[in-house]
Amino acid sequence: MMPDRCDVVVIGAGAAGMMAAARAGQRGRATVLLDHAPEPGRKILISGGGRCNFTHLDASAERFLSENRHFARSALAGYTPRDFLALVERHRIAWHEKTPGQLFCDNSARDIVAMLQAECDAAGVACHWPVSVSVVTVEHGRGTRFRVVTDRGAMACASVVLATGGLAIPKLGATDFALRTARQFGLGIVETAPALVPLTDANADASLAGVSLSARASIGKIGFADGLVFTHRGLSGPAILQISSYWRQDDIMLDLLPGRDAFAALREARSARPRAQAASVLHGLVPARLAAKLAGELALPDVTAGNLPDRVLRVIAQRLSAFVYRPGGTEGYAKAEVMRGGIDTRDLDQKTLEARNVPGLFCVGEAVDVTGWLGGYNFQWAWASGHAAGMAA
Ligand code: FDA
């Protein structure tokens, strides 16, 4: 049975909501945690290929996108990757560092959900799911400010934590509840869009699907060197997912030989196999299927590699290291790892995540206009913002 009144109602039992509820409960606040899904932490369960990349040790504010670049600093400093790691170790969860700073569970993302559930249980949090929340209204009374209306009855409470996440992966239960409720209370919304998402283009060549290589994708000064994968509809892979968060119809510069001088590499290839056909200068530099495609596109002259003039090598080098890619769109929320934009940070207190003009209303996690890079940053923001709100709600 759900109580008809409590101190704190946390709506959304994902990463941020479970952390917020555990913290509020630990402070002795009578806390109720609700979710409309049949189980908590569904995105945690599928994250990091089932092993949950639960944090990144270098979670500085520069690795997050927001209209207010400085907003996340306070919460991130109040609960650091080391704090979360200490919790993971206290629960004896085995973990490993994949690339520098990027931490994953050794066994299963289930360990993280079980840990958060254990924290909530130990703190006396009343967990209820599946519960559908229809609306939050204002109800001023003794010790109460809000009324949370659900399909299992209504609850009066002093604080509400909106932790229902963003719009990515609707089939896992993502909704616009946090955005809608924030708007209802007069908070601003920064325009939302799919982020960490594959890009599409009308000219995608399906015959290249599956070809992968290291590349650098950049827009202006921001760039990411990492894996790139051709898909049936465009491009994906970590370098593309990262740059997609910054993409707003701009051209993307692709360097398919990151960190190498393409012209020098082509000259070397020409010297190594002067009698081979011209296209062979590309072999070994990029995967064979892509090399064949580029050779066709560039209409290389019908001469041996040794007879290719520097002028032609420069054209090939340009194509390899400074290709202007113009996506037509993205694969959308169905394939996005996160949503960018969200509840406007100007309307929130950076230390507590409480709405400036609505005392008792807290907004955390992905619903807020703070979006991390790929690599464990989004969970770190969820833990840190959940912690901040849970300590104040
Ligand atoms: P989250 O989405 O986790 O939780 C929101 C909760 O609210 C859900 O339980 C949902 O059911 C509930 N809810 C929604 N609407 C509701 C309503 N109307 N009423 C009641 N409940 C409602 N990040 C990272 O750092 N490392 C990683 O490895 C990955 N991997 C990854 C893989 C994939 C496939 C995806 C889609 C995403 C990731 N992420 C990630 C991103 C990460 O999962 C995401 O940023 C966090 O889960 C956000 O946490 P929140 O708690 O804000 O939302």
UniProtKB/TrEMBL annotation:
Record keyword Flavoprotein present: yes
Keyword terms of this UniProt record: FAD, Flavoprotein
UniProt cross-references to Gene3D superfamilies, sorted A to Z: FAD/NAD(P)-binding domain, HI0933 insert domain-like, Translation factors
Pfam families per UniProt: HI0933_like, HI0933_like_1st
Stretches assigned to the RsdA/BaiN/AoA(So)-like insert domain: 194-338
Record carries keyword Flavoprotein: yes
SUPFAM superfamilies given in the database record: FAD/NAD(P)-binding domain, HI0933 insert domain-like
Domain RsdA/BaiN/AoA(So)-like Rossmann fold-like stretches: 7-391
Cofactor: FAD
Domain of life: Bacteria
Family annotation (InterPro entries): BaiN-like, BaiN-like_dom_sf, FAD/NAD-bd_sf, RsdA/BaiN/AoA(So)-like_dom, RsdA/BaiN/AoA(So)_Rossmann
The protein, known as: FAD-dependent oxidoreductase
Annotated source species: Tanticharoenia sakaeratensis NBRC 103193
